[in-house]
């Protein structure tokens, strides 16, 4: 492995522990390094060329798809890019300033088999991660990967703080017991643009979340993954290090990786036969130099608590905030991870300030435990999120609402129905003491917009009105913190705004506010039909016509119903059906007929009012019965779905256990065969000795 150049290489690119990630270097040290690099000259270039041959590099081809170079590079020395001979800029520990990276080289293309390839520059790691404005959003991306592994048997995901063995600095651990990744899968995970998630229920879909989220949280990440499949157990280690790339001045993304396979005969993990030993040792040397672990034994020890399947992600060299402290606060609460320390102060009257500050609508922005509790609309009971050693209790925001209503929204595009969305809307239980409002919009079970304020209320209009819905007909952005601004989203926003105003105007009296909206004046019926309003599927008022069988029915005029009461007020009037064309036979006769008609009309109006009240009460009872029956059926459906998920999970677990037993059986059979061979050899040896003695 190029032993003659090893000393020069270490002097040229070694990153000393005491200045990893410092923002400013001593000027004389930089000058000394520059002089030493220039002194090494051609030897250093040749050394870096050989390293690039043996490392995994990310390149883009003519199809613009990102691919991984494996094994020795087929490129000749003249076409391989190499590390800059200019001393790299020190790595800044503040994320939003760490992108000021200049390797002293222009963008390069290389030729491979006559085709032009464009290298992915390390600066892309940082610029790509800027899509995450919020650190908790980056952590949620990594949790999504674990939740997607539920279909492969995952039962937990651990989020915790650990210490970097090299300098005892805090690092972030995220570990699950899913199916793990084989050598090919981990290479796709740590490259760009690949996604193996074909399931429609899978949260991730772009194949970019791992890179953006890890690089947003820290400068470096090391991944340990164990996979058991086709009776082959593999262990893979990969390192994506912004520190390594910037400190060595690379002009392309280089990802060191090593793989091990279980030898079923010896029962030991051995170097994978996928690549030659020189390739393996070159990658291993980079891992030991730039990862938190300085020996191969320490690396392999990380698999002890993973088992036969699962993935462990360790993010180290965590980014700092503007005040010079680590952005993720592990100290304020030993059972939580926070941003910015304590809860954000809320502008409210003193008596209500505490309830507003402690409400989840405020805490989710600063407490990871609060955010993770509502991150998923529903989650299997067999799966748990463990934060800092404590289970995260799942919270259904629908249960936080009082005076609930259910509204069906059917978005349409070009006359075609896109979906049918059930929205639950109501007042927060703490209303009117809390100022929080808005809609919690989920996509494929994942929270995208928490407490989305579709209205900016004035004079408290809309205060405490909160809704929950799952909108799978609109697409989230790459960071899963917003939706793509399409016409469908604009229609949804407008509809949610209408829902908020309608709900507030008709129900604000339930939380102590005066109903300000003037109801339409009550108009008398002119025929045998009475109409009462109700909420339509779109959430707007629609009229249900009630026919009481009066003769000479005519056109229907709606009668306004106050939804907060159960009565209809109808004023007396002369129905059009009772009027008839008659000749004038004198004033007295006309007066008598007029008095008869008025008397009949009053009697009819009185009877109509009684019938209307009775019919309305009956309709309300039937509606409540239907709602209760619907809730029962919905609960049964959820129960059956849960039973199905549990049974599917048990089947997967049994299959996995069967595979483990089969593997153990194969191993024991191999041992038995080897023991039989040894016995035969010993027996043959004894026979040979006895024969010689006999002779």
User: How does the major sheet shape up?
Assistant: 9 strands, mixed
* Principal-axes shape call: globular
Helix share, percent:
25-40%
The radius of gyration over CA amounts to: 36 Å
Runs in which pLDDT lies below 50 for 5 or more consecutive residues are: 1-31, 37-90, 197-206, 527-586
- What is the CA–CA distance across the termini? 56 Å
User: Helix segment count?
Assistant: 14
The computed structural class is alpha+beta
Round the mean pLDDT to the nearest integer and report it: 73
Q: Within the largest sheet, what's the order of strands?
A: 11-10-8-7-12-6-5-15-16
Q: How much strand?
A: 15-25%
Number of strand segments: 25
Would you mind describing this structure in some detail?
- This is ZINC FINGER CW-TYPE COILED-COIL DOMAIN PROTEIN 3.
- Its main location: nucleus.
- It is found in: Nucleus.
- The protein is an alpha+beta fold.
- It contains 14 helices and 25 strands.
- It has helices at residues 3-13, 27-54, 123-129, 135-148, 183-189, 209-217, 242-247, 277-290, 296-301, 350-357, 360-363, 368-373, 487-507, 587-694, and strands at residues 56-60, 66-68, 109-112, 115-119, 156-163, 170-176, 218-229, 232-241, 254-255, 257-263, 268-271, 310-318, 328-329, 338-339, 384-387, 390-391, 401-409, 412-413, 416-417, 421-428, 438-443, 446-452, 465-470, 529-535, 541-547.
- The longest helix is centred in the last third of the chain and has 108 residues, at 587-694.
- The radius of gyration is 36 Å and the shape is globular.
- It starts with a helix and ends with a helix.
